[in-house]
């Protein structure tokens, strides 16, 4: 082997003391012990987390409701005092000869009696027992039996599966029965989510592995990030299983776990493996390469995990368990992904050593070509792009900003709503039932507005019911003093609607419950005066209260995210301007996502292609989740880039060269990481549930926009415009950063390096920091030499 092709090892220096050096030494000295412990813990996580899916909640009953709101209070009173008052189960019975036929009526009463005898079922009411016109279809061929499945969401779900569907769905004599109601909608939604998640994993894993093999060229190197992702997912399932013993956890947490578990773990492993291979190619031995890797890329991983975790933790300010449970899942998977990347992955690298490049799939390409391929680390194309952007910084910054604002403009017309049966595919049984009720029955027995009263005299309660019945959009009001329509009594008193001093009224709406008209009707009901306490509940009332809770919590959540981002980016860079830029540019990266959510999922464009039913509104809590998730992931890539730019800035003291070198050295890894994570999110976006589809496709778009537009165009353009002022900080803050700041390359240089040329291809000065890695040009030459040698 010619000396000219042998990498010259960089001068060895003692690694700095600290957490990352200790982790590197632990990985080298106790690698096999760490891996054995990992296998044992992973086996325990598999056993513990295996039943987590059966303990998750759909979020349909209470998941997006403020537990301290008026609607929650009224719902609790109804559940406690009148358990049959709020039907969540509907049996839609059809008879071709008409439901009023004597023999059919007898069978209908028998059907209702059988349902009432089932354990866990209460409040059974049928058309044949009451003769209520609202329980009979307009054409007289269909009738309803409504009831309530008691217990919490999980108990009601088990009752539905074990004692209702198999016994009542299908042909029942002359009747054809289909099962519907909110509990059936939630059950089918949960089933679809579980099935779709398995399909998403089957789609994402092979594509992810293929992308990683293209990036690394080595099958062994490509398998490592996937393995770290699997560890994060299985570990988080175990954490969620434990959390379900103490609090409610939404079924959507499994989607978030898969997305973040694969995405972040692969991102972190990709960064670490890439840096480790660079250090080996530069001539370092295994312990030194691992120490430098963890003191550089490892620091970035820890910092990135902190920013993502803080963004997700902001959802805990909201009282809705849907958002809180996703915060629990997100924080857990971020922490586990970071721990696996910083502890388990170094142990694997220590065992593999230089065999990290085994099973090189690029050998086939090399054999067919006389020219050795350019090392992946060179990034010459990214450097040219960065220099071109910086030469035209004002034009690029203005044009990119205009396009992003244009893409986000549809969000100005957003209309918030709540999820309903239209989330399901059009073929789902429970959706078919709900649409039948909507189209062929007067009012919805499961979409009524419930009003709970206390200490109301009989005369006052009747007068109050009369006033409610006069409201526009009200079909009738049922109560303990009678039935009222258009301000007059039309029916007798209804028994069972009082318990001590508590009573309740049912306002049957003539408008779609989840609509602007439905929300206006609830506000009108609440505005009707009475001389006694009264509280309103129901689907639409809960939506109004949820929107109010999110509106109160949103400023706090945004404040937490912004403040944490400013502090963390300042600790990384020591600059006052860079944290402000990071917040603003991250927010801009979300404009395309938010605009697309409204344009596609609210307004219905592309609904035929994507296979969903537009409802004219967006689930209230979902944009909050998407904002926190996408902002954290954008910061993930921002940290990758800023940490490398800061490293070069400290080494060369040349601002433009540092920006170009940062883009050059991270452009490939950020793009690869974004592709991997977007593949995972798109796979989740193939779900048959509209909200899951919206989450997956929307966040995938945000990730790609951030990695391919913000990081490659807007960031270098803005940094070029701000120039050397980018790194300015007042004296007190500069001293604070000198003491507590975080540097990817370890301690600050002891002496300034001479300024480098703006052209990163020029010769660079030697590294002066104790832990600084070899300069990029040395890595390029070493990588090229290693490529020739292996070829």
Automatic annotation (TrEMBL):
Gene3D superfamilies according to UniProt: Multidrug efflux transporter AcrB transmembrane domain
Topological category with respect to the lipid bilayer: Multi-pass membrane protein
> Any stretches that span the bilayer, and where are they?
33-53, 202-232, 252-273, 301-322, 328-353, 393-412, 556-578, 583-601, 621-642, 663-685, 697-719
Organism for this UniProt entry: Streptomyces heilongjiangensis
Write out the ranges of the annotated region (Disordered). Answer: 739-791
Spell out the PANTHER family in the cross-references.
MEMBRANE PROTEIN MJ1562-RELATED, MEMBRANE PROTEIN SCO6666-RELATED
Could you identify this protein by its name? MMPL family transporter
Question: Main subcellular localization, coarse class?
Answer: membrane
Q: Locate the SSD domain: which residues?
A: 219-351
Q: Which domain of life is it from?
A: Bacteria
